[in-house]
Amino acid sequence: MTDTVDKLVVFLAKRDGIDKLVKTFQYVSKLVHWHVEATHQDIAKRAKNWEVASGLSRKAFRTGRFLTGFNALRRNPGSTPLFRFLAVFANAGEMVYFFFDHFLWLSRIGVIDANLARRMSYISAFGEALGYVFFIIMDFLMIKKGLVEQRKLEAAENKEQVRKIRDDRVMRLMAVAANIADLVIALADIEPNPFCNHAVTLGISGLVSAWAGWYRNWPS
């Protein structure tokens, strides 16, 4: 129990840890609002307020995060020309997402023209979707590379290295799950449609993303 509490403290000390916790609040409240909207309007209103407050607080907490893309490219641009190409587009898309998300947040809280919200949301979501596509491709390529290396190591009976490759594969699959879920949410902003914009689709996608991120950031 003490070990779990210690890990929770470490998890919540991270920016991503807090983000995943609040993201869980955001999408649980979205599902609650959808579930009780027709039967318990008072509870539905409270759930909607919680969802909106959680979404806005996440945007405020992500201030300046677009700079992480620069740092990622500077520290790890990629080992091959292909990966450098993919990394540039993946991180560029993420940087556009976080940068324009600042303006979306400011427009929604009334600091700048509220009419800009829709335009900022579109640009931010487009960059987000672009980044996720390239991150997913990169993770699948690394998973494929890991499987090739694993077969060689299994033949040599190198159990320790095989375990590390398996652990890395689990983390990458979690990243793929989160990115696909977030891609669905981004598509709901880019091209609204009955499937992506349904409260259940958005709610489940948000929770998949939050919990996959929770798993990846949980202290080992």
Automatic annotation (TrEMBL):
One of its GO terms (cellular component) is peroxisomal membrane. The chain crosses the membrane at residues 82-100, 120-143. Its main location: membrane. It is a multi-pass membrane protein. One of its GO terms (molecular function) is identical protein binding. It comes from the Eukaryota. Keywords: Membrane, Peroxisome, Peroxisome biogenesis, Transmembrane, Transmembrane helix. It holds the Pfam family PEX11. GO terms for biological process: peroxisome fission; regulation of peroxisome size. It is found in: Peroxisome membrane. The keyword Manganese does not apply. Involved in peroxisomal proliferation. Belongs to the peroxin-11 family. This is Peroxisomal membrane protein 11-4.
